Amino acid sequence: MTSSFEALLPTTERALLHRVAVAQSEGRAPSFAAGVARDGAVVWSGSRSCVDGHAPDAETQYRIGSITKVFTAVLVMRLRDEGLLSLEDPLEKHLPGTGVGEVTIAQLLGHTSGLAAETPSPWWERTPGTLRPELSDVLGERPMLHPVGRLHHYSNPGYTLLGSLVEAVRGVSWEEALRTEILEPLELRRTTAQPVAPHAGGFAVHPWADVMMAEPAQDLGVMAPAGQLWSTVGDLCRFGVFLAEGDDRVLSAASVAEMRVPAAPAASADGKMGYGLGLQLVYSERGTLFGHTGSLPGFVAGLWVSVEHGMVAAALANATSGPLTATVAAELIGIVAEAEPRFPEPWRPLPAAEVDEELLALTGPWYWGTYAYGLKLGAGRAVTLEPLTGVGRRATFRALPDGSGWIGLDGYYQGETLRAVKRPDGSVSHLDLGSFVFTREPYEQGDAVPGGVDEAPWRGL
After folding, report:
1. Long-range Cβ contacts of 192-195 (<8 Å, 24+ apart)
2. What residues form DSSP beta bridges with 280?
3. Interatomic CA distance for residues 185 and 272, integer angstroms
4. Spatial distance between the Cα atoms of 302 and 400, rounded to a whole number of angstroms
5. How does pLDDT run across 5-35, given as a tens digit for each residue?
6. Which of 32, 145, 217, 259 counts the highest number of beta carbons within 10 A?
């Protein structure tokens, strides 16, 4: 995403508002608000309400439930980037006495800790946090339900532990760390732990009659890092831009990108959903979306980000059930992407300083056995190795600072080193990629093919 601003077309704005109107009507929501950011700026917001003349705006607060977990995950990633902990550290190293054994910080972030989904009764979302003043009250007598690290099992207590981890390492409350480390730097002035007017009230809408009842808004206490926050569509869209681009005042682009790498097996049987480090992932025909959904009694929320389309969408409603905020947020991205497809960046040649004859000589076809690959040169002396026939493993590689090779950034070769191996005379013999040898010709006599090459030439039957 870039920081340029370009207003949406009136027809696109009408289509977005129409989708919100349908969602409020069919979902029977007292109110429904949504917003869209494109290329780094909020470009649209709209809403519908059951009270004429009192529709919320982009700065009206709603409770966002589990979208709070993304903020908690960012705080943990900050601690990692500062060297104060490792994601592979057992939680007990920094927060002793929890009784969860060797569960790691990464497993808590990705919901593979094996912890229970909920706290012991009574239901934490509808009761005051004072009923669970200690972590032992949140975890109960049997906190572990599954083998550690074996499967994705969503856990609200797991994020309570992460909030307590932030407090233990930082030496301040979770709320204070959130305010000073995320909300203030990103200027998310309408995101708070307690409601600040103007804010929506939460309601339950009767399933069989058009009547409604107020829902209680509890302070979740120690459970706050799992779902406490109030926010607006404007703030959530701005937060989504940060999740796409990073901000060195809070978390680098590389670290926010790491958060959206799948950290667990697919969270759905059809493989269309996954989970990273605090971020839900959705794979669809529109491409990959990442973000989070949220709900607490009286409220439902959805936030999705598409790097491919340079867009963020948020949707909020004040009803316990019915409004499909997560679905609508995804559809808003689709509406804009279809009506106003993103222009590609102009093609430009690489800077002269990034190109030399030695690098250019490495580009072109290479063979792993009889599989044909092509090596392409990219910006910053990066290279891409991809199959020429559409069958095989593709990967992008970043140049190592010492010029000795490249490190894999994605796919099967992530973390693996690609090197150009030279002969005594200085010419390139082959490429070595984690012991895989790529030669200029398939099974050429004299090449460094593992196991050697048959002495007989290529022949037919």
Report:
1. 192/61, 192/229, 192/230, 192/231, 193/224, 193/228, 193/229, 193/230, 194/219, 194/230, 195/61, 195/63, 195/230
2. 275, 291
3. 34
4. 39
5. 689 999 999 999 999 999 999 999 999 999 9
6. 32
One domain for residues 366 and 255: no
Q: Are residues 279 and 308 in the same domain?
A: yes
Longest dimension (CA), the chain: 86
Segment holding 253, helix H or strand E:
helix 253-259
C-beta separation of 138 from 108 below 8 A: no
User: Could you tell me the CATH number of the domain that includes residue 260?
Assistant: 3.40.710.10
Same domain, 308 and 416: no
| 418 vs 4: CA distance, rounded Å | 37
Give the chain's length. 461
Contact 381, 355 (CB under 8 A): no
Which runs of E-coded beta strand occur in 124-166?
A: none
> What tokens does 389 get?
């026939």
The Cα 286–Cα 338 span in angstroms is 10
| 251 and 80 Cβ atoms separated by less than 8 Å | no
**Tens of pLDDT along 239-273?**
999 999 999 999 999 999 999 999 876 666 677 88
Q: Using CA atoms, how far apart are residues 170 and 163, in angstroms rounded to an integer?
A: 11
Model pTM? 0.90
Q: What span, in angstroms and rounded, lies between the C-alpha atoms of 143 and 141?
A: 6
Is the domain of 14 the same as that of 45? yes
In a domain, 121, yes or no: yes
**CA–CA separation, 428 and 201 (whole Å):** 69
- Total domains in the chain come to 2
